[in-house]
Amino acid sequence: MSMVFCRGCAKQIHESAVSCPGCGATQVASGAGLASSAVANDTPITFGNVFFEVMKKYATFKGRARRKEYWLFVLISTLILFALAYVEAMVGSPQVISGLYNLAVFIPTIAVGVRRLHDNDHSGWWMLVPIVNLIFMIQDGTRGDNRFGPDPKTGA
User: Fold this and answer.
1) Against a cut of 0.85, is the pTM above it?
2) Residue 35, pLDDT score
3) CA 79, 83, 89, 95 torsion-angle sign
4) 143 and 66 within one domain
């Protein structure tokens, strides 16, 4: 009985499962010898879809996130925040919309940061240590599977 990891929640499931019993994510069919890299979502991370891909995993703290996914999300989120703040400053209104935006992306930002730390085989609690977490976020992820799930580079 061969097991694979679900990219949606990083739980081990049987390779013949059509969807993950934990999160319901549809599974990708795996070829011979590729069971460890069978993942639920092989949508490539691009500038255009990274924000929506991270928001789909709104509060998913399990699994791994590549550097590209994390830093593109941070970039796009920051650009959106600056645009909202600029529009609010030009109109002269209080910063209500940008405040609501910050509140809306607070949990997804923490979740993708935790998944990024998992890619380096570190606990998400390292997010609380300021300089160290930045160093871990910059480093390349662990090659192959680790205790937090399959290598996201093998699926994308």
Assistant:
1) no
2) 35
3) negative
4) yes
